[in-house]
Amino acid sequence: MSSENDASSVNRSGGSGQNYALDEIEVADASSLSRTVGGTAIGNFTEWYDFGVYSYVVPVLSSVFFPHSSLAQLATFAGLTVSFLVRPIGGVFWGILGDRIGRKGVLAATVLMMAFGTFILGVMPGYGAIGIAAPILLFASRAIQGFSTGGEYVGAMTFLAEHAPDRRRGHLCSFLPVGTLSGYILGAVLVTILQAVLSQDAMTSWGWRIPFLLAAPLGIAGLFVRLRLEESPAYEKQSDDDRMDSRSSMQQLKATVVDQWRPMLVCAGLVLAFNVTNYMLTGYMPTYLSSVLSVPETPALVVIIAVMVIIAIIVTFLGRLSDRIGRKPVMYTGCILLIVVSVPTFLLILQGGYTAIFFGTLPLGLMLVCFMSTEPSTLPTLFPTSVRNGATSISFNLSVSAFGGTTPLIAAALVKGTGDMLVPAYILIVAGVVGIVSIYFTPEPAGNALKGSAPTAASKEEAREIAANT
Asked: Do 454 and 465 meet the contact criterion of CB atoms below 8 Å apart?
């Protein structure tokens, strides 16, 4: 892989040394591309709407589902962890299915199932009504959510990466996290408003249910949009020899892991750096600020929302920048920040006061956006079309399950067990080191065609330029 690593400069020809005739180069349809961006982002919106709501109502859910437990908060975070433990199962199922039957059908199914998993939590009775059955049902709803999200984000990034022109893939794929951030922000804002206008008794009794119930219309809208999308050109243009249709699912899984284990390890390392940072900020920091530092809940939530809004504003600019300078420099920046800035960041937060807390939390967002803007356009490029969805999904979800989704639970447990308020910073430093090693072994994808595919151009003029230069 070393020869690929050394090719760190952006390839503006759109190829990998192979010659392409003009009629072999795919020209993206602008109107179809716009629908594809919106159709993929809406699923990430639904997924992270759920995560934002759940993360922000952890204190309320603790009292509703674990009212007599001294470890109620950890038990509620364990409910969140359940969804991440199930994600690899969903990743294997949906990933392999996406390589067998196509990306579009899988994306339609996952957005509907995600919305259902969120909605049923909103109608679920609490411990006071049905006793021990309540936390069991809570965990079951999280398992449904985790199974569906196992195919959602990877399916969306694969689908969009296969539609996007090579020279614009970074910019277009960075709209996926816009959907992610918008969903999280909406969920967080709804919870914050409810906590501001409702009494504590009203919020605990029925108010917390409202955001979960709103997932139903989101799922229906997502299904409608995704059924109108067109299958990705890369998937449709595979030869019969390349397709996995003739293999059983187990044969396909075995072949994928055996043939792709090296890039799958790289993918898992990149995802670790991305998602440990992600879930530290979005999953654990609201509780860290309110429960550990005793910041009132509403101001604590507002701080996180403000940081997420800033990220949402700049993420597509970084995606566009990565098309010009490459993905790796942007990702390296995020990793270096994790290693150098994490401890000072948490020391500033521990000073207290809203100004210090905001400017201490903001660097976490700036670290996160370096990964969020580049990895959706990087991870699918590690694998050929025939196994792209499955290989990316398996490695992505195993890494998220083992390291990302467990971050809030591990951080909360270590802070409680050790009394060291800097534990979250230490975790982020480790993530940064793993990220640097993984980036080193990542071939620079910016400007290059997807592995095993002809180049994709944004226009006929660009296609002619690519054909002339290859």
From this structure: no
Distance, CA of 365 to CA of 266 (rounded, Å): 23
Question: Which pLDDT tens digits describe the chain residue by residue (470 residues)?
Answer: 433 443 334 454 444 556 777 777 888 888 788 889 988 998 889 888 988 898 888 888 988 998 877 778 778 878 877 888 899 999 999 999 999 888 999 999 999 999 999 999 999 999 889 999 999 999 999 999 889 989 999 999 999 999 999 999 999 999 999 998 899 889 888 988 998 899 989 998 999 999 999 999 988 988 988 988 889 888 888 766 566 555 566 777 777 888 889 999 999 999 999 999 998 998 788 888 887 888 887 788 788 889 989 999 999 999 999 999 999 999 999 999 999 999 999 999 999 888 999 999 999 999 999 999 999 999 999 999 889 999 999 999 999 988 887 888 889 889 988 989 999 999 999 999 999 999 999 999 998 989 888 888 888 888 888 788 76
Domains in the chain with CATH codes: 2-236+249-465 (1.20.1250.20)
Nearest to 42, CA basis, from 159, 183, 155 = 183
Written in H, E and C, the secondary structure of the chain is CHHHHHCCCCCCCCCCCCCCCHHHCEECCHHHHHHHHHHHHHHHHHHHHHHHHHHHCHHHHHHHHCCCCCCHHHHHHHHHHHHHHHHHHHHHHHHHHHHHHCHHHHHHHHHHHHHHHHHHHHCCCCHHHHCCHHHHHHHHHHHHHHHHHHHHHHHHHHHHHHHCCHHHHHHHHCHHHHHHHHHHHHHHHHHHHHHHHCCHHHHHHHHCHHHHHCHHHHHHHHHHHHHCCCCCHHHHCCCCCCCCCCCCHHHHHHHHHHHHHHHHHHHHHHHHHHHHHHHHHHHHHHHHHHHHCCCCHHHHHHHHHHHHHHHHHHHHHHHHHHHHHCHHHHHHHHHHHHHHHHHHHHHHHCCCCHHHHHHHHHHHHHHHHHHHCCHHHHHHHHCCHHHHHHHHHHHHHHHHHHHHCCHHHHHHHHHHHHCCCCHHHHHHHHHHHHHHHHHHCCCCCCCCCCCCCCCEECCHHHHHHHHHHC
